[in-house]
Amino acid sequence: MPTFALMRLEETPRQKKIATAIQQELAAMLQGAVRKQGVSNLVLSITKVNVTVDLSLAKVYLSIFPKDKGEMHLKGIQENAFQIKHDMATRMRNQLRKMPELTFYLDDSLDYVEGIKNAINKPENPLKDAKLLSKRQKK
Predict the structure, then answer these.
(1) Cα–Cα 20 to 30 A to 26, which of 36, 62, 68, 99?
(2) Partners of 57 in beta bridges
(3) How far apart are CA 33 and CA 64, in angstroms?
(4) Strand 101-106 to strand 57-65: parallel, antiparallel, or no bridges (unpaired)?
(5) Could you tell me how many helices (H) and strands (E) the chain has, helices first?
(6) What is the pLDDT of residues 64-104, one digit of tens each?
(7) Fold of the domain spanning 3-107
(8) 62 and 42 in contact (C-beta within 8 Å)?
(9) What local confidence, expressed as pLDDT, does residue 18 receive?
(10) Residue ranges matching CATH 3.30.300.20 in the chain
(11) What is the pTM of this model?
(12) 107 and 71 Cβ atoms separated by less than 8 Å
């Protein structure tokens, strides 16, 4: 396999820098909006941001607590993605020329890890019978 093909799997320093900047600004903006609205008992955090190589798209992974209201809040964020992008572009105008399109997803990695821990502690061995583990959806 050529070495240049392997290099594409890694994020470039520019992608990492932009992803980190978006993560910090977006977290501050969304958490500020939650506080301003006076919503109590809601914890919203940005767990990861992945930016494409051409810097045109950013996948934003959210962790929302309580989990039972996570889908509802995610839907609200997705419906307002255009306004969020506009506000982010305004906040980051000195750092980015063009704001990437933002797509939002719920981060289920903690649930996935919890499922693995529970499967390991059961008497059945999930390593011998893969059907015992739930499949993870690729996003």
Answers:
(1) 68
(2) 101
(3) 14
(4) parallel
(5) 5, 3
(6) 888 888 888 899 999 999 999 999 999 999 888 899 999 99
(7) GMP Synthetase; Chain A, domain 3 (3.30.300)
(8) no
(9) 94
(10) 3-107
(11) 0.76
(12) no
